[in-house]
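Section handout 9: paired folding examples.
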Amino acid sequence: MVPHIRSVADDPADSEAWIRAALTGFLTPPALSRESVALRVAKQDFSRALGAFDGGRCVATYRSFDQELTLTPGRVVAANAVSGVAVTATHRRRGLLSRMITEDLAAAKERGDTVATLVAAEYQIYGRFGFGPAAGFTHWRVDARRAGLDPRWTLPEGEGTIAFADAAEVGKVGPELFERFRTAQPGAIDRKPLFWERLTGETRFDPDPWNEPFHVVFRDADGVPQGLATFSPDGTWEVGMPEVTVSVTSLTGATPAAESVLWRFLLAMDWVATVDTGRLASDAIVPLLLPNPRAAVIKDYGDFLWMRPLDLPGLLAARDYAAAGALVLEVRDPLGLAQGRVLLDASPEGATATPTTRAPDLTLSTGTLAQLVLGDFSASRLAAAGLLDEETSGATSRADSLFHTGRRPWCPDIF
C-alpha cells in the first residue's frame, strides 16, 4: 500500500504520531511521556506539517514554517524554513520526501517567499531539490592558559558593565538585542519566542533534569544592552588545579566591541582552563583576539545553513552589492521553481533583476547560486570547481566584485 500524505495540523493524535516518527527517523528513542508530546504539539508550529501514514502509523515527517533571513546588513527576506524531515528506515526509497518537499516548495513560491532554508543532516540529499550550502561554521576549543591574554583582565572603567543575569532578565533584554544583531549579520535568522523559552528553561521538551546555565549581559557606557552570553561550566580539580571547561550555548554581540568584551570575559574567568565556543562564523574574531592564536584549535567545521531560491529576481534584487556592474545569470532549477535568465544591474545604491533574453554571462544551478548569494563562496572558487560556467570573458571577476561581503555569512541557530 502506498503511504498516504496528509496534514497533521488538525488532529492531535496525528501530531503525536508525527513527533514519534520524527524521533524514530533520527534514531532517537521515542520514549516520551504524553505530557512531553502534548507540550511539543502546543509549542511548535504544526500548521504546515505533513506526515506520511501507512495505515495508522506515521512513517515519514516534514514541517515548514515562516522565517526571516538576513542577506546582507539591513536586507531581510521571507523564507520558508524546512525542518523535521525524517523517513522511517522501513519506508525509504519510496519517494515520500520528494512528494512532501515538492508540494511544500511550490506552496511557498505561491505564497511569495523569496527563499527556502534548512539545516541538512546529510549532505547528499538536498542538492537534488535545488538547495546548496549558503553559510558554514567553525567550532573552536580555546586553551585559556596558553592564549596569552591577561588572566586578571577586567572591563576598563567607563566602557560599560558586565553582570550575571537570571532567566527573567535574559527574557527581557535578549530578544531586542538579538534583533539588532541578526538584521546586521548575513545568514542569521529570526528567533521565535520558543527559542527564548527553551534557552531560559521556561519550556523544556527533554525528560532530562534541567541544568541552569549562566548568563552574562554586557551594557555599554549608556547602559544599553549590547552583548549576551549563555554558557555552562564543567570540570574537576586535577593535582590541586581547577580544570573547568566553559561551553558556550549562545553568544551575541550587537557590536564588534561587545563581542570582544564577552570573549575576553569568558577567557579571563577564574578556574577556566578551556572555552568551547560552539558553532561560530568561520571568520569569527575569537582567534584574532588572542596574543597566541594557536591556542584556538578547530574542533569542528562544515556546512550548516542551506538555501534555495524561490523568487529569482526578488532574491537578487533584495541584497546589497559591493560594486557597480551588470550580469546576466542563467539559473537552472531541478524543480523549475526559480529557473530562468535574469539581468542583474547592481550598484552600492541598489539593484534590479529582470527577466531577459540576452545571452548569459554566467550559468549556474540554484544550489550554486545559494553558495554565491550570501557571500560565503566566491564566483572564482565556484568556477574553479566546475560549479559555475563563465560564458562571457571577465564575468566571473565581475561577480566576485558584486557579491563580495566584508564578513562571511553565519547562522547561529539550528532549526
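Moving on to protein 2 of 2.
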Amino acid sequence: MPNAIQLTELGPDELVRWYAYPAGPARPWIRVNFVTSIDGAVTLDGRSGGLGTPADRKVFLLLRDLADVVLVGAGTVRAENYGAAHTDARLRTRLWHHGFGGDPDGAPPRIAVVTASAALDPNSRLFTDTGARPIILTTRSAPADRKKILRDAGGEVVEAGDTTCTATAIRAALEERGLRRVLCEGGPSLFGELLAADAVDDLCLTVSPLLVAGTGGRIAVSPTATPTPMTRRHLIVDDDGTILTRWERSHTQS
C-alpha cells in the first residue's frame, strides 16, 4: 500500500474497501474513530464537531454506514447532543450484499450508550429522534428508577457490570444481539477503558489542519492502559490538509 494517497484519487467503492471491516467477523470487532487538531486537541469550544472538515465528515458518515452499532459514552452523548444514527439506506443494503457491513434492509446502526449510573435525559434527542432503538449499557448498581425511566422512554436497558460497565460485558451484550461491527465514537474515557482491556481492534484517526492549544484533552484517558502496538493500514490526505489514517492492532489480522 502506498505511503499516502490523495482522497480525490479514491472513488466511493475504493474508499469503502479501505475502511471495510474484516469479512464476517467471528466476534465484535471494535473500531474507534476520533478527530484531533494538529496539536492534539480533541475538542474545539467543548465539542469535537468544531474540528471537522469535509473529508472527516465523509469518512464519519461512511464508518456509520459500515457499522452494526455506534458505541459511545454518556458524556459524549450529552456534549454532542446525540440523536439516532441517520445513514444511507441504499448504500447500507449494497454494502451488506457485498459483505462489507451495512444491513440487508438498509436499517441504520443502533446507538449503544455506556453509562454506569444510567444518568441520561429521557427527553434528549437520543430517545426522541426517529431511528433505531438505543441500547443503554449500564450497571446492576444503577438506580432502578432511572433504568425504568429509560426503558419507558424507548431504550433497551442492558446491565453490563456490577458498578462499572466492563469491556467484556459490553462485547458480550453486543455479540448477543449480533452486533459485531462496532464503531466507538468516544469519548476519551471509554476509549481508555477499551484500551486497558485490550479490546480495541483498529483506530480511524483524522488530523484536522488546525492549531487549537487551549485545554482540550487527549483521545484516550486511562490510568491502567499499557502501550498497544499498532500497524498503519492507510494514510489519506485531502487538499485542505486533512490527514485520514487507519491503524490496526499489530497482532490482529484483517
